[in-house]
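General statements about sequence and structure are easier to judge against a single worked case. No coordinates are needed to read the tokens, only the vocabulary itself. The sequence in question and its structure tokens are set out directly beneath this paragraph.
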Amino acid sequence: MQNEYLNIEEIGIRYPNLYHSLIKYYSTNYNNHSGIKSLNDLITKNVIDGDNLKRKWERGLFEKIHERYGLVVKGATFGIVPNWGGIITLKETIQYVEQLHFYLSLIDSYFIVFVTVVDKKVKFQKQIHNFLKKWEAPGLIKTYISPHDSYSEVFTKIEILIREEFTDAKFVSYRIGSIKIKDLKTPHYDYNNCSIYQALFKPMTVMKASNHKIIGDKNYKENDIT
């Protein structure tokens, strides 16, 4: 599926609530938008200062996940990012690691849950002028974007707990999250035409392998936004 490109006004027509969330902090006129300062203040209050992060996210949600399901959560909130994050390692072998990721945006409590399968030894290559650079590193080979097969139960459990802890939380479907907004820049991604996902989140993931697959329902819980 190719990424869909919309301008910010078209987002307003299709997804008015999401539009109003975004324009509080972003504009296609990046350098002259007061929302960037508001976004930085939001991140400082909830990530840099750390009190809300520890109280609401780590001591709140993480501990509840462990108490209820016996799952150990690793924090995934690093840097100047507009979200809180967590990672649960589901299975690890010599070659592969399977993890469930979940992220709650500081912008009006939008959230995502997904499962990744990473091959620890993927061969990459990149042409740099006349030189072909080759290297080996962990590579993302599968991403599950909705409850699916053996991951259904844990995916649903984490989704339910997030909704319990943050009653205004709204799931962002893969299809909506992948929409790119024309000329949108964000402080945490250094390029134009950022997607809705990129406006709301910056997940901790590794580079995608050439055989990377998206698995699941791209429209999962789309009614949360529409």
About this structure: The chain has a mean pLDDT of 93.
